[in-house]
Amino acid sequence: MTILALHGFTQRGSAWSEVAEAVGGDWLMPDLPGHGAEPVVPWEAAVARIGGFLAAIPPPRVLAGYSMGGRLALETALTSPGLVDELVLVSTSPGIEAPAARAQRRAADGALADRIETVGIEVFVDEWSARPMFTGLQHRGPEWVARDRAARLGNTAAGLAGALRALGQGAQPYRGDRWADVEIPVLLLTGEQDLRYTTLANQMGEQIEQSRVLVIPNAGHALLGEAPEAVADAMVSWVVTLE
Questions:
Q1: Is the peptide bond before 60 cis (omega within 30 degrees of 0)?
Q2: 16 lies in which domain range?
Q3: 127-145 tens-digit pLDDT
C-alpha cells in the first residue's frame, strides 16, 4: 500500500514527513504546483497531475491531503475514483457554494497574490504564518518553527501567487453537492479549535457512507504541524488493511 500525500498552501511535500515517519510504509509526498520548483498550472491540470501520480503507483492506494491538498485530493477522488482506494482529508473544505461568495473569494485571493508579488517571499511567509489559524504551531518550539519557515521559504513569490490564483478556493469548483458520490472509505480529520472546518467535516461525514470524522483535541487548523502524532495514530487506526 502506498500513501500519496498532498500538502497545504505555502508548504512543501516534506510537511507530511513527521506523519509519514510515524505511520511507516511507502509514501509519495510531491510539491504541489506553484510550490518549490513546480510550475503553476490550472486547477484541472493540477488534478490530472495527481491522477498521473496515482496511476503510476500499484494498488492499493491511499490519497491524503491537508487544506489545499485536501481539496485537490477530494477532487481527484471524485474525478478518478478508480485510482483511489482510501481517502484521508485533513482540515479540508469542499469549496464555496454560492457563486457570488466564490467570486468574492477569487477576488480576495487575487489581491493577496498581488501582495505576495509586491512584498516578496520572506515578508509574505512571516505574514502568513502570523495568521490566527497557525498560532498553534508555536508550541512546537523555536527550532521547529525555524525549520518550518525555512521550508516555506523554499517557495517563490511568483509560484505562491500563481498557486493562489489557480488553486485557491475561489478558483476551484464547489464539491459539497457531490459528497454522496464518494464511495470509498474516507477519514476526515480536524482540530477541535478549528470550528469552521469541524462543521464542514461533520457535514461531509453525514453524507459519505464509509466515513469517520475524528476531531483532534487541543489543536487548530494546522494539524500536520500541531499534532502529527495524533494524525498518524488516526491514520493507522482507520486505514483499512488493503494488502
A1: yes
A2: 2-95+174-238
A3: 999 999 999 999 999 999 9
